[in-house]
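Lecture 7 notes: from sequence to structure.
We start with the chain below.
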Amino acid sequence: MISCLKVIPILLQEFPNASFGFVGARSYDRTGNLVEPISKTQRFIIWSEVVKKKIGQVTFSHFEFPEASGYLLLNRKSVISEAERIELMKRMFIDTYSDFPDLMF
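Predicted structure tokens for the same chain:
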């Protein structure tokens, strides 16, 4: 995750209005054939704390979607409204992650 965070300043040089997001993947226990629920995964809990400590509030607004284990860093420079950006990012999560079409967040 730290490596991913280090790429953000590099991407912002080329795309100054870029926003970022992630979904904490679910863990799978092969022994018990168990899959972690979508909401508040272990990875989401850990990574969201790391992001809060490493990325400040000046460039990005931080939004958590615990029901989907999603986290959004919304660039404050964007010209569209915050509500529109959040809806666009939610749509991106749903379009990208096949587990999400039935998830309402």
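Points to note: The longest strand covers residues 60-65. The chain has a mean pLDDT of 84.
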